[in-house]
Amino acid sequence: MDTLSPRLRSALDEIRAAGLYKSEREILGRQGPQVQTRRGDALNFCANNYLGLAGDPRPAQAAKEALDRWGFGLSSVRFICGTQDQHRAFENEIAAFLGTEDAILFSSCFDANGGVFDALFGPGDAIISDELNHASLIDGIRLCKATRYRYRNADMDDLRAQLLGARNDGADQIVIVTDGVFSMDGSYAPLPEICDLAEEFHALVLVDDSHATGFVGDGGKGTPEFFGVADRVDILTGTLGKALGGASGGYVAGPQAVIDMLRQKARPYLFSNTLAPAVVAGSREALRIAAAADAERAHLREVSALFRQLMAQAGFTVLPGSHPIHAVMFPGDDGARVAAEIAERMLDYGVYVVAFSFPVVPRQKARIRVQLSAAHSREDVVACVDAFIRARAEVVAPAEGTH
Ligand SMILES: *Cc1c(COP(=O)(O)O)cnc(C)c1O
Q1: Shortest-distance Cα residue to atom 14 of ligand 1
Q2: What is the pLDDT of residue 263?
């Protein structure tokens, strides 16, 4: 007897009543700077498609050819009969790109983060994690028996305090864990300071660079390269689901012994199917393109700077920074409603953006997150800012003007 559904229905009603119900907007074609929705065509400013490769014909063509050559699936985990030579070749290419000894593929970065901690650390070890780290890091750390410590976002005094705490508690191996880029703010983790502290306390550094690999730093090598500390970050995790083609898959890159141990013990690697052949081939092509995409990276920096400049001129508050994630802030009690209404109206003007409010971001810190792509033109950016201005005039100005 289904005694569960009534309880779920009332819980769902509560989610709706709180305005937190997530509904999915269907895209009627391929991903790109312009997408087709049921409400018409829209400029898309909410994809993690930083280099524009998700809808690019080249990875798609490589995947098509791979279907013929490698088949649709492998029906196996890696260690039984799910490793094609292209899987190993791709792992070597990822390691070469990032400058690590080796790398290992997972079905997603969520799985990479879910498996990496339990396989490498155990009771007696300490994991010190930034409070704003991605959910997959939080879950992965929970699955591990090491002692957990948490520090305030990018707060180096608090990180030092937690490191001292771990040392005083007699920790064996300590690892500091951080996102390279915090996705709700578009801010960077202060990696040079983190690496200094790691050195002082003989700790490892693990960076999840999902929002950076392919487009941040020299050659797109990510936040460690951006900060000049690539040789001081021990372990990297990342996704193929954002800049690197945007299909699916993730990886861990690092020292040989780390990768060897993950192949032996990482549970999402051992007990979940291998990455599909076409995804491997398409993602390899995406990485090849990304490695040579200096012009696209320069263009991405340029349109990002243009967006910030035009939004500042129009009187919007955008969190400072240089990353192509831009948090347009709508503070105060009414911020969540204002942000949601502006985002909704912007679609009428052909611009697709998404508003975020509590509990995804802190109370009073509602925002519309705008993500730029190398596939956006300067005209696209101008159109986006115009839509912000027009929507704000409808949502905010009438009320404010009368007070
Ligand atoms: C997107 C993201 C992930 C999840 O990546 P998937 O490959 O989609 O599972 C993990 N960590 C961070 C920091 C991310 O931004």
Answers
A1: 210
A2: 98
